UniProtKB/TrEMBL annotation:
The gene is murI. The lineage of its organism: Bacteria, Pseudomonadati, Pseudomonadota, Betaproteobacteria, Rhodocyclales. Keywords: Cell shape, Cell wall biogenesis/degradation, Isomerase, Peptidoglycan synthesis. This is Glutamate racemase. Pathway: Cell wall biogenesis; peptidoglycan biosynthesis. It catalyses: L-glutamate = D-glutamate.
């Protein structure tokens, strides 16, 4: 295969459902010429409250599906899968580069926290796995990490209550113990949380830097594609394909909110 043919293959991005579109949006903005195949397991979402064994099994299935589409890079957009099943993706990927939101978010948090005090919010499975804290400590052994599970945020975001009094009160309640630790930064450790950024910025106050793992993942992807000689140059419009496991209607409607543009064609995978 020529270098151009290798670079023109798609980036495979996957998530438990709709939320990973926040990562796709950031990729589209940062890497506008890259083709993307997105997989959302909408029939089995949410993952954030499921057991590790179940998430590992689903992750293996999705990884194999994307490898069959001949992707050039895999991006685990789901924090929960990255937290407990990154090893499954790495073991199956062969020589293909694999990135995940936890690696990107941990690096950005360390860089943005001169005082070494870092807050992390995510689903219960992500927080219980301690994956963010482990990675942050590998990068900065002296860092202090304060984590908080926020299980109500995912349904609130999917309901579209991005600036609703109920969401604001919920955020104040969840963030209180983390903010009491005077953190320098707060990692938005779930695909859905970037949509709450304006509200969380208000609640956390100006002294706390919000780490949007979607943006930092897109940045890391750009870096890795260049390092591996896989960046797609030129000016041809990029091609986007979306696969889901449930009927696509809800994904299409809510997905446009996450993506900030229309989705185009969505196909259902029948497993
Ligand atoms: N995508 C998941 C995450 O980033 C949130 C939704 C779920 O629980 O599946 O952790």
């Amino acid at each position: 295969m020529t270098a151009d043919a290798r670079a023109s293959r798609s980036i495979g991005v996957f998530d438990s459902g709709i939320g990973g579109l926040t990562v796709v949006r950031a990729l589209m903005e940062r890497l506008p010429f890259e083709n993307i195949i997105y997989f959302g397991d909408t029939a089995r979402v949410p993952y954030g409250v499921k057991s590790v064994a179940t998430i590992e099994q689903f992750t293996a299935q999705i990884t194999d599906f994307l490898l069959q589409q001949d992707v050039k890079m895999l991006i685990v957009a789901c924090n929960t899968m990255a937290a407990v099943a990154a090893h499954i993706v790495a073991a199956r990927a062969g020589g293909i580069p694999v990135l995940d939101v936890i690696e990107a978010g941990a690096r950005a948090a360390v860089a943005a926290s001169p005082g070494g005090r870092i807050g992390v919010i995510g689903t219960p499975t992500t927080v219980n796995s301690n994956a963010y804290a482990r990675r942050i400590h590998e990068l900065d052994a002296g860092a202090r990490v304060y984590s908080q599970a926020c299980p109500l945020f995912v349904p609130l975001v999917e309901e579209g209550w991005l600036d609703h009094p109920v969401t604001r009160m919920t955020a104040q309640e969840y963030l209180r113990p983390v903010l009491a630790e005077e953190v320098d930064s707060l990692v938005l450790g779930c695909t859905h949380y970037p949509l709450l950024k304006p509200l969380l910025r208000d609640v956390a106050g100006p002294g706390v830097k919000l780490i949007d793992s979607a943006l930092t993942t897109a940045e890391l992807a750009a870096e890795r594609l260049n390092d591996c000689g896989l960046a797609q140059g030129g000016s041809a419009p990029a091609n986007y394909r979306y696969y889901v496991t449930d009927v696509p209607l809800r994904f299409q409607t809510i997905g446009e909110r996450f993506l900030g543009r229309s989705l185009g064609r969505v196909e259902r995978v029948d497993w």
